[in-house]
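Section 5.1 Outputs to date
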Amino acid sequence: MISWPQIHQPDIEVKLKPLILNDSKQGMVQVRNSRFFSMYVCGITPYDATHLGHAATYIAFDLINRYLKLEHTSVHFVENITDIDDPLFERASRDSIDWKTLAQSQISLFTEDMCALKILPPDDFVRVTDSINLVIEFIKMLQRKGYVYEISGDFYFASSDFLSDLPIPQAEAVEIFAQRGGDPPREGKDHPLDPVLWLKNKDQEPGWESPFGFGRPGWHVECTAIALDFLDRNEEDYVIDLQGGGNDLLFPHHFMSAQLIKAATGRDFAKFYIHTGLVGYEGEKMSKSKGNLEFVSRLIKQGVDPVVIRWALIRDHYQSYREWNVGLLQNSVSEVDLIRKALAKSEVCPVDELIEEIISALSNNLQTQVVTDLIIAWARNSLAGDDSTSFKNDSGKLSRALDSLLGLVF
């Protein structure tokens, strides 16, 4: 599927340091500087797009993508769209709208938001509805290995051989699994944590013909099938270099995806697992159930400049829990205005050292809170006076660097 239009990333003359990221399994790791890098980031379920939690996650992986591209690494970036899921069908039913129409409207809104936020588009933007055959073939691989069983027309993955590295105690895992789409108490399951691979059709939901009957795929198998088909080069012990998403995907989604790949191929899914922190709103976790989601499109319609939104979302570290509130928005408006005024000057503080410091902070696990403080300090110093002995006509050089490295177009 065609994603959003290409975003220009200026080519800048800089010396980059090796990129180090905080891996959810391994701790601090150096992301290899090689000719080719594959990255899979879990995309939206298109029933309510794009809230600020989505935006913060995709901005974080955009920063990684930008950094690697500036290293002249060939990045193959894939993002899926989960356009088959219960929340989509529930909202379509609630609003008396065709589920396909609802999905397309939210996908269009999402791509508009990504453009506004200057996020580089994925090389492949893949709908699950366009990938049913990939999912079916993947389930058949699991079936040939003996890891598929049936309960009343639904097909499950037999996970028992792949639970030795659960990231949390099993009792806690079962509880979270039930909260996030699993059905641990279902009678007849081999193990409470076995995820569904194929659901038989019910209640007039959409479905597809398959060797497993007329129905639709389960959640975890969709991403594994797409990633394996689009990104696997059969050159490593793992299928992709980087698997990414919000930290609420650590379990069960990313854990189960990894076990499915291990069962089907005997290989690891990803070399690196990078996760972002959640975004709260006015003191509470931002969630659909609380009804406190703040949307990018709504902010833009209210007149908020997209660069202000992007700036606000990188003011804190991408792996920390962050709060969105009126104060953050107001401060970000003021800070962006300050930076614009400084960049509009013909003579400003020298920028070479600043750019080096920005690169150093980004290379150290995307320390954007350090980066933004550095930029604000530079802007204030540039506006404080006109020191003809040290000031230079460097604002254009800095503007290009901020655009290329951070996606900030002032």
